[in-house]
Amino acid sequence: MRRHRNVKIVATLGPASEDYETIRALHEAGADVFRLNMSHGSHAGIAEKHRIIRQVEEELGSPIGILADLQGPKLRVGRFAGGEAELAEGAAFRLDLDKAAGDAAWVCLPHPEIFAALEPGAMLLVDDGRIRLKVTGCGADFAQTQVLVGGTISDRKGVNVPDVELPLKALSDKDRSDLEFACELGIDWLALSFVQRAADVEEARELVRGRAAILSKIEKPSAVERFESILAASDGIMVARGDLGVELPVQNVPPIQKRLVRRCRSAAKPVIVATQMLESMVTSPMPTRAEVSDVAAAIYEGTDAVMLSAESAAGAWPVEAVATMDAVAREVESDPTYVQIIEASRVIIRESVADGIVAAAREIAEATDIVAICCYTQSGTTALLTARERPRVPIIAMTSLRRTARRLALSWGIHCVMTEPLERFKMAVVNAARAARAEGYAQPLDQIVVTAGVPFNVPGTTNILRVAPCQESLIWATDPG
Question: Among 8, 217, 226, 258, which one carries the catalytic annotation?
């Protein structure tokens, strides 16, 4: 299924989008990757969504990526007598380990690891920062605070601790169970929540054992500070602006987003921009102008993918939300300014033969009448390097590994086509020409660039480039190989 855009769309599945008809409609409207939120639903329900996605993939002949998003260490207050309490600004408020129902003076915080890390002056943010508490005193099992921003606090609201690095396990027992279940199910990407350090990613990688690519969600200040090492340990990144905007001043998030997207592009690793992109479409068939501008800004930055959360999982207009995002992407990418911005922000990296090959492919394509770049790839690396170049022509990734095709569904500009394993470069050129014609990228008299590695089927051997016609008779007549 050809997309007339380069940026990819990730759609979260949930109560509003868990049946076959809706999932198929979401994919046809533009969803390239489906996100399964492990925080909600049973394993049986998640397995059923996975089955439907693979059914749609088979019926439409279109590789679809599946991203399982682990819950991570969720920190929440306990319960209140009556379900809620009103905190007055300037009042004292205590948090401790007592599991009794709380009131306006105190509540249970069943996380001793928080108390172990707190110091006077630290901030506690409750309910996405709607309630702000400053620690005035603390011990091993309590924190005495002053209410800086009051309001209604209710049962089980989330707690953020932006000022300290918490001594939390990278993966909870639930995360470990969900990780194993998702990997056995056959997901393509595993997202890690609340990553604080590269060691968190390395711990997950040991458990994954190569069964999925690992995507780190950047949503804590410590992750921003250690981004380079986290990026090096990860296969991809998600800029999770929700918690990031709670734990940092909101004005810090846009420049962080831009910086992280550029670093991911430079590293040839896919990056998703997520959270509240079309939030109003949870209840409205039309987004706000500001939301459209937010989506457009991420696309102008060159992000690999933009993500819908509640909009597609629980909203009243899930298919319309995907269609809107698709329409915004097409309009932005047709703007001449988009090309100028993308090319102005291109990072030149020439450290290997593969780097040189993909750079040459882009330069040849842009200097002549080439209509597409066809790259053969086993691990996906060559396709990712080609995408890093952000060429003006489409990228067709040819692979015999369905796992690789599904993972590449997340990456900018890559259209994957399944092919049989090959032994001769001439057949690689012939198959590339056939795919370019069949997928609607080329006509018989057009030319394409083909890159591959010889010997075939060996990852990391990209070493050959050819400009080829799309008419098979000309390929057989001109190629002696």
Answer: 217
